[in-house]
Design goal:
Blueprint lengths: L1 E2 L4 H7 L5 E7 L5 E7 L2 E2 L5 E6 L10 E9 L2 E12 L2 H7 L2 H4 L9 E15 L3 H14 L7 E6 L1
């Protein structure tokens, strides 16, 4: 896997259609816990925003380390940073839509905004499945390592 340097916008463009991410946080016992969430927004600085259930056991005040993982057919992205919870009614109004409302029985009364202030994006890219299969077959025949794609890091 070769190092490559894509811009934040290049990577954002590749995951533009990805709407579900895994958000990983540490629980009160120190265990890592992950849950799927709908991505509400990824801003120009690479920060990620979700609307979440205010009563969920993992939702707590204060800033803490967290990670968001997204994947599409040929790109995998890991975004690390600091998660904060906002009860801003204005921000919630800005993000609220009918699809979001479907998840909240009591509407906005049950919702808060989870904001991951990104520190670093890491990404891995791969060619399409046909090219991947060819690369693996070629590596077997030539006793070489397949060209599995690229990887990179973006500090934000």
């Amino acid at each position: 896997m070769a190092d490559e340097q894509l811009s934040l916008q290049d990577v954002r463009d590749q995951i533009d259609d990805v709407k579900i991410a895994m958000l990983t946080t540490m629980d009160v016992t120190g265990r890592l816990r992950a849950r799927p969430l709908t991505v509400q927004d990824i801003d120009d600085e690479g920060h990620v925003v979700f609307v979440v259930d205010s009563g969920a056991e993992w939702v707590m005040s204060g800033a803490r380390a967290a990670n968001v993982s997204l994947t599409d057919d040929d790109v995998w992205v890991s975004i690390s940073g600091t998660l904060t919870i906002s009860e801003s009614a204005e921000l919630l109004d800005e993000l609220w839509d009918e699809a979001t409302a479907a998840w909240f029985e009591n509407g906005k009364a049950d919702a808060v905004v989870a904001h991951l202030a990104a520190d670093v994006w890491e990404y891995w890219t791969a060619p399409n499945k046909l090219v991947q299969a060819f690369q693996i077959g070629k590596a077997v025949v030539t006793d070489d390592t397949p060209d599995a794609g690229g990887r990179g890091t973006i500090d934000v």
